[in-house]
Structures are given as structure tokens and as C-alpha cells.
Amino acid sequence: MILKDPDPILHTKCAPISILQGKRIAKRLREAYIEARDNSKDTFVVGLAAPQIGIPKNVFVALGDVFINPRILSVNKSEINSEEGCLSLSDVYRLKRFKSIKLTWTDEARRQRIMNLEGKYAVIIQHEYDHLMGKLCSEHAAINEFQTKIEKIKREAVEDNLKSLGVVS
Ligand SMILES: [Zn+2]
User: Fold this and answer.
1) Ligand 1 centroid from CA 110, angstroms
2) Which of 36, 111, 146, 158 has its CA 20 to 30 A from that of 167?
């Protein structure tokens, strides 16, 4: 069973876990992920995070890999546009994501990994990572829309100023 927004667990910051616990949850995530993938004909399922199956712990699966206690160490501030759907939401949202991220996590073989991720892969990981922070892509979209509004107001204010100065008509 995959939780749907506005379930409070989807908005809970997840807790760190032991590797053993992480592997157990990952097994359940994989099963839920395969079931969801087989049941959704029009959604492209690429990942699933523990809170989506009701467990507020730091683990997700994405593109077949397991990420236990992942942590973003740094980001490349340039952004790319992204269109994202989520098994916990019914709409598709437009938002901005960092172009690349440096991530550390523990994998299924108990190895501590550190990697620079770019493009589509970085976007998928940021989406799943957000789930662990109790955040959904719909919230980003709302923020982006809000920022756009502020920018529009600022732009209009500048234009009004220029008009009053006779620079533009
Ligand atoms: Zn999601």
C-alpha cells in the first residue's frame, strides 16, 4: 500500500537507521515498487522511499539501487527544469532541481559510497531524498510558482520606475 498525500507520514522528517534495518525496509520497498510499476500503465516508476510505505526512516530505492542513510554533501547551484510525478500524488509538477549533487550513502553490500550525480539521475535522487526530508515535489512547485510571482512583481515595479523616468513607454 502506497500512502497518498496528505498523509502525515509523507510530511515527517525521517530518522537514520541501521544497515540491517535499511536492508529489511529496502526489501519491502522493492516489492511495493515492482507492484506499483506493474499496476501503473501511464506512470514511469523510478523510485520509492520508505515513508511512502508508512515507514519514516532514511532509505529509498531508485533505479534498482538501495540508498541507506543518504546525505547530500554539496550541490551545483545551477538549476534544471524538471517535470515530476509521484506515486503519492496524482498530478505532475513542474519544478527546478539542482543540476548535479554530491551524495554519500550506504549501499546494500554495506559499502559507504560517495558519488557525483548529474542530470536525470541527480533529479531522481533529489526527488527521493526529499521524501526523507518530509517534502513532496508538489511543495517545490508551489514555492517556484510563488517565486515567479515575486519576480513578476519586482519586474513590474522596475518597469513602472523606468516608465516614470521616461526611459520606456
Ligand atoms: Zn515521490
Assistant:
1) 25
2) 146
133 is written with which cell numbers? 526530508
Q: What is the DSSP letter of 128?
A: H
Residue range 135-151: average pLDDT? 75
Interval between CA 27 and ligand 1 midpoint (Å): 18
Q: How far is the CA of 149 from the centre of ligand 1 (A)?
A: 26
How far, in Å, from the CA of 138 to the mean position of ligand 1? Answer: 10
pLDDT classification of 38: cutoffs 50, 70, 90 = confident
Are 125 and 62 in contact by the 8 Å Cβ rule? The answer is: yes
Distance CA 55, CA 9 (A): 8
Question: Taking a C-beta distance cutoff of 8 angstroms, is the pair 76, 100 a contact?
Answer: yes
d(CA 22, CA 67): 8
Of 31, 84, 118, 128, which residue is the catalytic one? Answer: 128
Residue 139 annotated in active site: no
Q: Are 48 and 36 in contact (CB under 8 A)?
A: yes
CATH class of 8-164: alpha beta
Contacts of 76 (CB under 8 A, 6+ apart): 98, 99, 100, 101
